[in-house]
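[job 4471] stage=fold_predict status=RUNNING
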Amino acid sequence: MAQWVKMAEEQGEIVRIIKEEMKADPASHTKEELDAAVAKLKELKAKADDPMNALEDPVTKVGA
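[job 4471] inference complete, writing structure tokens
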């Protein structure tokens, strides 16, 4: 499960960077790019909080 948490933290940093860049220059990213990054973050957080994912390896999981 720690791997899911790490991946969620990394995605959270990506979202923060996109938001900062958009604040400085609104044309730097589209709203769709931000929405996609946030959606991925929410998905990773849900997986990190799900105890059933504790045994899964997110790196080798098929379809991840």
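[job 4471] summary: Residues 15 and 36 are 9 Å apart (CA to CA).
[job 4471] exit 0
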